[in-house]
Amino acid sequence: MSRYWSRLAATIKPYVPGEQPKDKKYIKLNTNENPYPPSPRVIEAIKAAADDSLRLYPDPTCSSLRQTIAQYFGLAGNQVFVGNGSDELLAFCFPAFFNPEGLPILFADITYSFYPVYCRFFGIPFETPALDDEFRMPVEAFFKTNGGILIANPNAPTGRFLDLPAIESILQRNPDSVVILDEAYVDFGGESAVGLIKKYDNLLVVQTLSKSRSLAGLRMGFALGHADLIEGLCRVKDSINSYTLDRLALAGAQAAMEDEAYFRETTAGIIKTREATAKRLEALGFRVIPSTANFIFIAHPVQSAETLFTKLREGGVLVRYFKLPRIDNWLRVSIGTDAEMDRFLSVLGSIVRQ
């Protein structure tokens, strides 16, 4: 610990991202990256944007990209906010909509582990309603008085999806709270709540281009909601960094949003591979939680998750292991190509048959 650190820097427990190894070649099924490359149109757009204009600042309002996203979802341009990955965008949400001196915000006890990190960083009180033993969301637990609601849908790391009638019931019972839906994985079989935005001015939907559009390395996320919510995000962003998206990111993101055919083709391929992998895992004796994400959540009745994680790594396959209460015997496995999943299942099969 440095004597120069602030109390916050000294006491905060940061989020730990998935391993990005550099020492050897692994099959990476640990960070929910898309196994397919970005649309060729994205690469072309980035190359075209890499010209003399890089000496100039990018458009701080990102107006062209926002308009493209707005048209895609049937919204107005002032109902769209874009940022440097959905993680940054979610971070902006905490000072924009939640108060340190207010009521606790609510999110599930098993969910994206960045949420409690943000709460502690911004000093936001929170409570964590417990998922049931099948990792299903306790809808009624979100009917209590609160300072805000945050739901990952599909949830991470479980992959379970909360249907729109349940989401709408939460919105109806919380007219004075901002309800944020983190839809990072919704394109892999879920149904977006974007259609509810016109009905509920307290709903903010957050999505990312990292997963379904193969742009984890570009860092681009967006939020959709009532213009008042978007203005709140803009006020926070412009108090930190007016230029969160560079010219290359803006060009690549717009091209990705415009190539609908490629997006549909690759997401359909991942869904097909996910379902085939789940069946093969069940045949090996694994419990597999139903998933609408680009990953699956699995447990074995005999082999511990920690043992499987270690042996898979030794066999050249990386998966995600969370040594946390209630899920310390589960593994999250990202969906790779068919060949990568064949290799994963081969190594896994040899481990459980020992």
Walkthrough of the structure:
- The protein is α/β, with parallel strands linked by helices and 354 residues long.
- It folds into two domains: 122 residues, Aspartate Aminotransferase, domain 1 (Alpha-Beta Complex); 220 residues, Type I PLP-dependent aspartate aminotransferase-like (Major domain) (Aspartate Aminotransferase, domain 2), CATH 3.40.640.
- 37% of the residues lie in helices and 13% in strands.
- Strands 2-8-7-6-5 form a five-stranded mixed sheet, with helices on both faces. The chain has a four-stranded antiparallel sheet with strand order 9-10-13-12, with helices on one face. A two-stranded parallel ribbon has the order 1-11.
- A hairpin with a 5-residue loop joins β9 and β10.
- α3 packs parallel to α8 and α4 packs across α5.
- The chain is globular.
- It starts with 6 loop residues before the first helix and ends with a helix.
- The model has no long low-confidence stretch (mean pLDDT 96).
Primary descriptors:
354 residues, alpha/beta, Aspartate Aminotransferase, domain 1, Aspartate Aminotransferase, domain 2, 2 domains, four-stranded antiparallel β-sheet, 11 helices, 37% helix, 13% strand
Summarize the structure.
This protein is α/β, with parallel strands linked by helices.
CATH class of the largest domain: Alpha Beta
Spatial strand order of the main sheet: 2-8-7-6-5
> What's the gyration radius in Å?
21 Å
* Distance linking N and C termini: 44 Å
CATH fold-level name of the largest domain: Aspartate Aminotransferase, domain 2
* Helix-strand category: alpha/beta
Strand content: 5-15%
